[in-house]
Amino acid sequence: MNILCAYNANIDSIYHIDGSELSCMIGKLESEDSAFSDSLQKKLISLPGSISSKSDFLAGLITCMHAGSGAEWMISDSSVFEWIKKTFIDGSFMRMGGNMGIMSNVLSELGASRVVPNVASLSKLQLSFFSTNAIYHPFEGKLYKSSELVNLLPENNNNPELIHFVFDFRKGDVVSFSGQDFTVPRENRFIATYDPLNFELHMDEEFRNYSLKHVSEMDGAIISGYHMLHENKKSSSQDDSGNSSSSCKEKLDNSLKQLQSWKNIRKDLHIHVEFGHFSSNDIALYAFSKLSPIVDRIGMNEDELAMLAGLSGINPGPILEMNSVAIADAAISLCSDSGLCRMLIHTREFVVSVSCMKNDDPEIIIEAMNFGAGCAAAFACSGKLADRNKLLEIASDIPESEFGKKECSRLAQHIEDKWKCSTVCGSHDSYQVTIVPTRICDEPVSTVGLGDTISAAIFLRELELNS
């Protein structure tokens, strides 16, 4: 399979933070600044959603740890980024980051023939994190593997390193601050991101030219990074009333034109978009509504689905509780309203697919979903990507989620027209609905990239089975 990948690749600096360390840090900041405690408490009540101060950063981290949820907040102040880097860089380890960067590596390791990624900032360090199997970079009109391109980049290459800080935390940790204690209910991560290029949905010109010239040779495209778009506080353009208009929608529209240009050349190009955690509800709704009629499928987790559902008047509570019926119903409702044909919702416990395509083979979807769940579980346990046979061998010893199996049974009772499949599938509200349980690693090496891993693996396996 030949696959285009865009838009966001960066370097993740992963830090395992525990409750006692966080408690000590908060205590130190409170002792240094008498107003810090009040500021933090206010931020916890009214979450800022982005980071322009130390209290913003800690409010996001504490909130995620308290709920056992994941989020990504953008850093808008370079001095805060420098403080985070100074505080945590020595205890972290670096790896490929960005949804697209991770997914391109998954595709390469699992056996794709040619994976061509967009790289916003081409540097030797960034290149070192790409898979050596099937990743090819367009450069000066030719394709190069990373090891080849490293030797071609000039020594004085000034492209910036795009580093995101990922804070992993574990179930059972206790956090104490301002006389309050809480226990982390489950493992997850909080991401603090300072990345001006991917904020802009930057498209490398070499990639742009290659994609248009060679899209007829490609089997699919996997796209992400829209969640990094944010409203500009200042804009050079104004509408007729004198109000500033954000350019983020223009950037998204330019991307949509590119995707449509690919489709115009190759109508059967299968495009999957991984949605991501948006800091702006308006941009999230705009992105979802504009992408839905163009792309073939959008993937997301339960947090992202709940956000979209809530904005559409659907109760997000049961979705966040990982109620499979609520998740399937919300996905169908959003697809029906937007014109999206397929949606994939991946949770810690199970994966749900909904599709309006009557001729989709449910057994292909089931095999692909089980393949993705197995690859993600093996990656969680080992922290490493490997060839598919090795990953599936590891996965065979990892038990299926008991919660996930119960939710499969719950959804089976809800589906109107159940089909004879190897797992729960059927027709509901004119949509094909399929669910499989995930496999749960009790002591994961890392939770970073599991959603990207499962989506990329499912995408690749479906391409193979439908080819």
TrEMBL record:
<protein>
    <submittedName>
        <fullName>ADP-dependent glucokinase/phosphofructokinase</fullName>
    </submittedName>
</protein>
<keyword id="KW-0460">Magnesium</keyword>
<dbReference type="GO" id="GO:0006096">
    <property type="term" value="P:glycolytic process"/>
</dbReference>
<dbReference type="InterPro" id="IPR007666">
    <property type="entry name" value="ADP_PFK/GK"/>
</dbReference>
<dbReference type="GO" id="GO:0046872">
    <property type="term" value="F:metal ion binding"/>
</dbReference>
<dbReference type="GO" id="GO:0016773">
    <property type="term" value="F:phosphotransferase activity, alcohol group as acceptor"/>
</dbReference>
<keyword id="KW-0808">Transferase</keyword>
<keyword id="KW-0963">Cytoplasm</keyword>
<dbReference type="GO" id="GO:0016301">
    <property type="term" value="F:kinase activity"/>
</dbReference>
<dbReference type="Pfam" id="PF04587">
    <property type="entry name" value="ADP_PFK_GK"/>
</dbReference>
<dbReference type="InterPro" id="IPR029056">
    <property type="entry name" value="Ribokinase-like"/>
</dbReference>
<keyword id="KW-0418">Kinase</keyword>
<keyword id="KW-0324">Glycolysis</keyword>
<keyword id="KW-0479">Metal-binding</keyword>
